[in-house]
Amino acid sequence: MSNQSAGTSFHMENFKRRSRYTLVFVLLILAFGLITVLNINTGNVHISLSEIIDILLKKATDTKEYSIIWKIRLPRILMAAILGGALSLSGFLLQTFFENPIAGPFVLGISSGAKMVVALTMIYYLGRAVNVIIAAFIGSLISIGFILLISKRIKHMATLLVAGIMIGYICSAVTDFVVTFADDSDIVNLHGWSQGSFSGMSWSNVKISALIIAVAVILTFMLSK
Predict the structure, then answer these.
(1) Residue 146: which of 95, 112, 190 has the closest Cα?
(2) Where are the alpha helices (DSSP H) in the chain?
(3) N or C terminus of the chain: which is more exposed, having fewer CB within 10 Å?
(4) Tens digit of pLDDT at every position of the chain (225 positions)
(5) What single DSSP character describes residue 152?
(6) SS3 205
């Protein structure tokens, strides 16, 4: 009887846990839908809820509100959602890999490495959009590459995180040194890039980002135990 009661208790606890997870996901989906509607309706042009529904269902395609939603606001919202999910996934992978809940792109110096190479690219290579994207990727790889090299000698994860912080400070120092000799326009562009903006997003950007991140999500699930 004791084994049966223990098994029943285990199944009940497992059922409650799954129910809580399901409830949380349902609430998050509803919250995302509400935030999407609010973001679509936020701006200089006020659009009512009925108009938003008609435009999303493509019942009204010959109005300026249709262009505002489909060409400006909706790509920005979807891009923010996709990249926000990608950031949470990357943070989860870093915390899992380094077995530390505070591991992240800022702590490990990955963001600083990306900004350093982007600064060099913007100032000395005319700051083309594609080149900036590639430069940020290369800078991130350089930072994480140094951390992986150091990890061969340092086995303690806390010490490895300290090494990542040191790499971040070094990259920030190089960035500040480069910015000192840069033109004002390059400094403004670098500051705008580092703050992040979705103002120039289009459907082609959304498709490319969704494809790349979908592949990363699939590979992440394949790596799960």
Answers:
(1) 112
(2) 2-40, 49-56, 64-67, 74-98, 110-124, 129-151, 157-180, 184-195, 203-223
(3) C
(4) 455 555 566 567 777 778 888 888 899 889 888 888 888 877 777 777 777 777 777 766 777 888 888 888 888 888 888 988 888 888 888 888 877 788 888 888 888 898 888 888 887 775 455 577 788 888 899 988 888 888 777 777 777 778 888 888 999 999 888 888 877 777 787 777 777 777 778 888 889 889 989 998 898 888 776
(5) T
(6) helix
